[in-house]
Amino acid sequence: PDIPVIDQAYSKLSNSITVEWRAVPGATNYMLTAQDGDSFVETIVKNSPGTVTGLKPATLYRITIRSINSGGKSQPSPFRKVKTVLAAPILSVHSPSCDSIAVSWKAVHMAAGFSVSLMRSDGLGRMLKENTTNTSLIFTNLDPGTLYTIKAYAWNANGMPGDDFTYNQRTSPNAPVDVKVAFNSGALRAVVSWMPTEGALTYSVTVSSGLLKLRCNTSSASCVVPSLQCGSEYYVSVTAYNDAGPSKPTDAVSLKTIPCAPVNISIEEEPGHLLVSWSSVTFGHYYVVFVKSDDGLEVHCNTSHTQCHFQSDCGFTYFISVFAYNKAGQSPLGDILNYTTAPCCPSDLRAVFLSGDTVRVTWAAVRGADLYETRAACGSGAVLCRDTAAACTLSALRCNTSYNITVRSLSEARASNTSCAPLDLTTAPCSPEIKNISKEGLSVINVLWQSNNEEAVYVVTARGEAGLWHCTSTGNSCALMDLPCGSAFFVSAVARSPAGQSLPSYSVPLETAPCCPDDLIVTQVTQSITNISWSVGMGAQTYVTTLESPKGQAKCHTLQNYCLLGCITCGTNYTVSLRAISETGLTSSCTYQGYSSSACCPSGVKLYRVSNNGIRVFWRASDETINYNAHLRGSKGNFSCTPSSSLSHCDITEIPCGDVYTVVVAPVTDKGPKLTFCPKKIYS
């Protein structure tokens, strides 16, 4: 085909040149050639205009064109010299603040200056344009968070503009406003909210306290910051973000969290009160103490101090919790302390003696007591008793001793109540010990004992079949009066005082001397034998009877209540005595009325008949002063005669004859029966 002719060639882009020509008949294609020295770039196009691409910016090229068909290529057309336009500046754009955009670029080859324009991408507002020979500039007074379109190109010395470069850049957002912090005291988290900011894509909430920083990122207008610490002050700021970067952080909002639970809680028990103390906590404006007893009753105390008093009762368990409060709310639940007060003191304390050394102490059971301790103290000694029952028996107590008895209620949780009132108790006197029993006189027995009690009255008792005899004394001896003879007793002593009565002493046997027989009869059996009989003497086992005169003594020791005494001298005055002897050898000496033995019987008694019916009796008198009596006893009658004292014979007349008579001559007695033991004579 024919050689085409270039109408015009120009460069609108830095990497291409556009060529316009008139069509050549018969040509099916065209070859555009751009030559720069030894290098060239060829492009096949269908028709005009055609563009050669892949060129270097700001470079002078020789442009030629050939037409092509099936027959071949035409010769090159006359060339045109065309320089490619300047390359577009490569922009580096950022938003240093919410109302500015900074644009910078590298120098462009052959550029004499640069033109940069900026306009809101939404078309609102006016376009800003700046021409500069520098490689950077800043657009200010822009709308925060707004997307702007930036276009820049370079021009050469002829004022020919080069390629332009378009960049969309959003200004950084403005800082959020109306920041509010809502604190959830129960979950220890904060909900931060704010008014949405134009152009902000995300938000970052920073919660800082010292070196601790917590962050929360969100695309909404609120954020929850968890895991806050109690008793801390946080500073909350919000920063808005978009693709341009962050906004300035908001002014920090102070957030004081709830106070931490109080620690170092201590409980002191005072009479009728509990004193609860604790350490102050940071940001704690006031405190509330809750005290709940195990019967369900709950009370509380509101204070700005670090201690509270509560009324308390003995034997209760109290559950105590302390909360701190401020504007943020209530502190978390801390330790729940349980405190059991000392058990109540036993009431209605009573003591009853079971014996002299044993006392039973009873009381009313009290609340809170697991165990009771009964202590009886005297001086340096003490008797202890522990039992779960509301009674205790204290044994082996010392007699005549003052004891201070205290009953303490014990619990596993709170030891014991040490303020219980004691009970003073004095034991009964000690048992006296009988040291000696002596006979002071007739039917008077003196008893001596060892006294070891104070303010005691002693009662001595002699107990026997004969009955009871008593004597009393505040000293260490007393006399038992009018004890019956011949009796056996057991003597014991007891001590009595306001505290009670002692156990009786060991009994000491006592036997009184046997009784003297009430009746004693002396009967002369023969001239030299006397029979003595007596009534039974109480308590006597044997008897010793004695007839005593200057001429001698007759004695008899017998178990019987009679005795025959021989070797008696006739016509003699005797002293009669009897000793009653008990089984143990006690003796009572008994003295009776004196006894005179009968006069001696005459000797040489002879009988003579003086008439048909008379008889003379002769004898030989033992003593001329003695009068005698002659007595005849026969079947036909009894007859007697008594001569004067100077004669030793007498006559009995008118006696019946023809009879046998028994004749006895015996001394005449003043009283009593006639003597029958003088010798008898038979007369026929």
From TrEMBL:
PROSITE patterns given in the database record: FN3 (PS50853)
Full protein name: FNDC7 protein
Species of provenance: Vireo altiloquus (Black-whiskered vireo)
CDD domains: FN3
Domain Fibronectin type-III residue range list: 1-87, 88-174, 175-260, 261-344, 428-515
Pfam families reported in the protein's UniProt record: fn3
SUPFAM superfamilies: Fibronectin type III
Source organism, top-level taxon: Eukaryota
